[in-house]
Amino acid sequence: MAVSSSSFLSTSSLSNSKSTISFTSSVSPTQIPSLRRVVFRSTIPATSHRRVMTVRSKIREIFMPALSSTMTEGKIVSWIKTEGEKLAKGESVVVVESDKADMEVETFYDGYLAAIVIGEGETAPVGAAIGLLAETEAEIEEAKTKSASKSSPVAEPVVPSPPPATSSPAPAISQPSSPVETVSDGPRKTVVTPYAKKLAKQHKVNIESISGTGPFGRITASDVEAAAGIAPSVASPSPPPAPKATPPVTAKTTNSPPLLPGSSVVPFTPLQSALTNAFIASLSIPAFRVGYSVNTDALDALYKKVKPKGVTMTVLLAKAVGMALAQHPVVNAICKDGKSCTYNSNIDIAVAVAIDGGLMTPVLQGADKLDLYLLAEKWKDLLGRARKLQLQPREYNSGTFILSNLGMYGVDRFDAMLTPGTGAIMAVGASKPTVVADKDGFFSVKNTMQVNVTADHRIIYGADLAAFLQTFAKIVENPDSLTL
Amino acid sequence: MQSTLSLSFSQASLVIPNRPICGAPSTPRSLRFCGLRRETFGFYPTKKLTSCRFQIQGRRIEVSASSAVAGNGAPSKSFDYDLVIIGAGVGGHGAALHAVEKGLKTAIIEGDVVGGTCVNRGCVPSKALLAVSGRMRELQNEHHMKAFGLQVSAAGYDRQGVADHANNLATKIRNNLTNSMKALGVDILAGFGSVLGPQKVKYGKVGFPDNIITAKDIIIATGSVPFVPKGIEVDGKTVITSDHALKLESVPDWIAIVGSGYIGLEFSDVYTALGSEVTFIEALDQLMPGFDPEISKLAQRVLINPRKIDYHTGVFASKITPAKDGRPVMIELIDAKTKEPKDTLEVDAALIATGRAPFTNGLGLENINVVTQRGFIPVDERMRVIDGNGKLVPNLYCIGDANGKLMLAHAASAQGISVVEQVTGRDHVLNHLSIPAACFTHPEISMVGLTEPQAREKAEKEGFKVSIAKTSFKANTKALAENEGEGLAKMIYRPDNGEILGVHIFGLHAADLIHEASNAIALGTRIQDIKFAVHAHPTLSEVVDELFKAAKVESSASTTPQSVKVAI
């Protein structure tokens, strides 16, 4: 049974009634809460702890278990045990309905079902306390008082408030002309499409905070996606005709200079707003830049060979960057708090992609390890879904290094902006035939590409970046290792 | 349509349950397995086209034509016809074919197009749309495709192309139906028919003089129309019924479906596959109220929750205004119990799927003192019409949606056949509990007999025990090969005597799987016997086999192994 692998019990020592997740805290107070899963998965440590704890009395919380990866909340179908009933380890206690199935949830502990916090038919988010388990009969009463004091703060957020039903008091029987007015006269209610509602729940987006851009001002899936950080799934609405749009907009932005006649104002889409925030935040990062010229003759030759197999230049570059980063972990690191350097264990290359109405950064995970062809396949999938705005958040916001390539436009060099979340970004220009002189003074024409890396100076110093670029250039100039 | 066929085929055995499997009483019981085969061979010379009406039409028509001359050529002495059927839907069609086979001179009156609701505005075109939605769903499901190792670029559709497919299918089936009757020599009389008096019918088109004909027996089979509750304004564009929806003139971004029965569910499957978002409005407290609770719960998990669908239950749509003057469709919801206003919805379209109302106006029922009940024509268990005084009206029958017993195309056809059996001298009562029903969502839902709560209630009253056998599609090889392991089959039965009370299936091709169970119920076959029947492996039919084998019946099989020896 799936349940047995997921923990749903935590304990709460009586001595520390404030803390809800005190099992870990009673053992080692510094552990972060998520560790309790690990602790509970193995039964051996749990038993040994229990033995220790029999000295002190214990009341454990029964949690809403996560029965599937997509489950965010569960409904109590029925309590198999009643309050006060004795429980033996492995016995089924409660039936929980998830988005996928009804499942019986069993206890990992012996004891008594002291109190039911969430009753049958009610719903609770994953991880919320749904009941209390007392170790001895004597503690049942104690647990009950505890649950009573708990029930107000716990039960409140636990039962999700019904969608705001702004019941416009429309009469059941009304005159043919009146009903439309009844609805439109009152304050506009929030209209949310079914899929938008589902997405909001899934991404934990407060629907009230979103303003709808769909037909009739309704909140659509793309509004929610935008608010959740996923790009909207429909291209931003076309700019409204200028004469109409001008008056309301000027009215709102009274302190900005008046618009020139004939100009139009197009408000930012949520994606554009999100990007704006990131760009402004980049100003707080002490960034510096180091450039490098790389000979790409060998890379171009390789590209010709692998192109029929679906490998793009972007993928080749991402692979090369990934392999270079593996040798220079500091360039793959990030400064999170201004006080420390966080080294990332994975090398995940985010690649900036222009999409309709903005910019996306699909992430090639494990770019250093993954085989070039697998990487190319992955990239094709990511790119396709990025253009359709169907990426999951972790597929575009988990990069540890950013790659931005404008070479295809003929740009020879540019400067990329380092946004918070990564330590460095590489700007790649076009590879162009260039006259170069070698150390013996012979001139030749070689394809040369200029790359320019912007990095966070708090963690990456000039020499780090220079060494990284040297490695990168070596890989690009001898690209056989890319296909290994 | 398919079920209609199967029912007309089984006419010989559509008797009261508990009859032996082979109609001929001379067949020794011990020879059952081989006897079945012999019987099949024996069918052809005598029964002619019963089994093959549509499939091999071209070949069979000549045979049928000769039979028609013999069967439909001799009018009765004092009447124009032996049987006149008002309404050429699936019910009327089934009755007409069987009547000809029984040697009756038959006429059928149709005021609209042959085929009725099922063929033109119901089961048939909706199956075309659902065939499209099933494929769209599959192609759009990246995970599903990947699991097969298939790579498909983005799936799209052409709305008009989809609509044409539905329309073409309806036309094709309508022609098949018309031709099958013409070939048999059934007189198709155009115009609206009504009852003038006992054994007398008039028919005619508007603006033309009426024709009056007499018939020994009359069947009313006028069917039904979509039911639209009051307060709802249907404009055919943004507020529509299934009649409009099947034309698929538009695919709205967001459509509210009022009613979560078969019709609503099937359309939600179509619309969501084509990219719409759907909001269900259900008057009862839970979605899919007609289904077995366990099935509807699972169906909700698969057909509702993961799709772009939300719902309001326990509410009536008290008023629906079509989109106009730049406003969306407005739906006012009131609490189903307190009638208090609850909410207002703004959507792009609304589909009214609140059931169907009998089409019985203008039938001249007052001439024979028949009073309809909510529009339905009251009948007894033999489909004989009951008049205002509770007396049977002689020689007048009513089948199908117009009597409201079981509003399904194949039920109408079965009732029609049952009536023909009676008027040709063989008493016959149709067991409605043996009539299967299906909802063609992806995956499909099918059922026959009682739901679990109904069975438990009956058991309580009559004092017997009820057991449940269940099996999952996850255990079926064929389903897993199709990557369609999601599904459940459930049988409700009596453990004491092995009687099947009900079977409910949710899963791949459930609609096709139910017939083994419905036939068993119709023929009175007990679990302890049918569990020895062999199913080809690997097939989905093994899901039902599993059910039979999982059942724990106290009585032992009635057939002995010796019969098998004879077959070999």
TrEMBL record, chain A:
Cofactors demanded by this protein: (R)-lipoate
A GO term, aspect molecular function: dihydrolipoyllysine-residue acetyltransferase activity
Composition skew (Pro residues), residue ranges: 237-246
Keyword check for Transcription: no
CDD domains, sorted: lipoyl_domain (cd06849)
Low complexity bias locations: 146-158, 167-180, 247-259
Region of interest (Disordered), residue spans: 1-27, 143-188, 230-259
Biological process according to GO: pyruvate decarboxylation to acetyl-CoA
PROSITE patterns referenced in this protein's UniProt entry, alphabetically: BIOTINYL_LIPOYL, LIPOYL, PSBD
Keywords tagged on the record: Acyltransferase, Lipoyl, Transferase, Transit peptide
GO-annotated cellular components: chloroplast envelope; chloroplast thylakoid; pyruvate dehydrogenase complex
Residues annotated as domain Lipoyl-binding: 59-137
Similarity comment text for this entry: Belongs to the 2-oxoacid dehydrogenase family.
Protein name, as recorded: Dihydrolipoamide acetyltransferase component of pyruvate dehydrogenase complex
Taxonomic lineage from the root: Eukaryota, Viridiplantae, Streptophyta, Embryophyta, Tracheophyta
UniProtKB/TrEMBL annotation, chain B:
Principal location listed in the UniProt entry: plastid
Cofactor needs: FAD
Catalytic reaction annotation: N(6)-[(R)-dihydrolipoyl]-L-lysyl-[protein] + NAD(+) = N(6)-[(R)-lipoyl]-L-lysyl-[protein] + NADH + H(+)
Gene Ontology molecular function, alphabetical: dihydrolipoyl dehydrogenase (NADH) activity; flavin adenine dinucleotide binding
Active site: H537
InterPro entries (UniProt xref): Class-I_Pyr_Nuc-Dis_Oxidored, FAD/NAD-bd_sf, FAD/NAD-binding_dom, FAD/NAD-linked_Rdtase_dimer_sf, Pyr_nuc-diS_OxRdtase, Pyr_nucl-diS_OxRdtase_dimer, Pyr_OxRdtase_I_AS
Residues binding FAD, per UniProt: K127, G193, T222, G223, S224, D401, M407, L408, A409, H410
Superkingdom of origin organism: Eukaryota
Localization of this protein: Plastid, Chloroplast stroma
Disulfide bond sites: C118-C123
Domain FAD/NAD(P)-binding positions: 81-416
Pyridine nucleotide-disulphide oxidoreductase dimerisation domain mapped to chain residues: 435-546
GO cellular component: chloroplast stroma; mitochondrion; oxoglutarate dehydrogenase complex
Cofactor note text: Binds 1 FAD per subunit.
Binding site for NAD(+): G259, S260, G261, Y262, I263, G264, L265, E266, E282, G355
Signal peptide (residue range): none
Annotated EC: 1.8.1.4
GO biological process: 2-oxoglutarate metabolic process; response to arsenic-containing substance
Keywords, in A-Z order: Chloroplast, Disulfide bond, FAD, Flavoprotein, NAD, Nucleotide-binding, Oxidoreductase, Plastid, Redox-active center, Transit peptide
PANTHER family in the cross-refs: DIHYDROLIPOYL DEHYDROGENASE, MITOCHONDRIAL, DISULFIDE OXIDOREDUCTASE
Known role: Lipoamide dehydrogenase is a component of the plastidial pyruvate dehydrogenase complex (PDC).
Family in the record: Belongs to the class-I pyridine nucleotide-disulfide oxidoreductase family.
Subunit comment: Homodimer. Part of the plastidial pyruvate dehydrogenase complex (PDC) containing multiple copies of three enzymatic components: pyruvate dehydrogenase (E1), dihydrolipoamide acetyltransferase (E2) and lipoamide dehydrogenase (E3).
Protein name per its UniProtKB record: dihydrolipoyl dehydrogenase
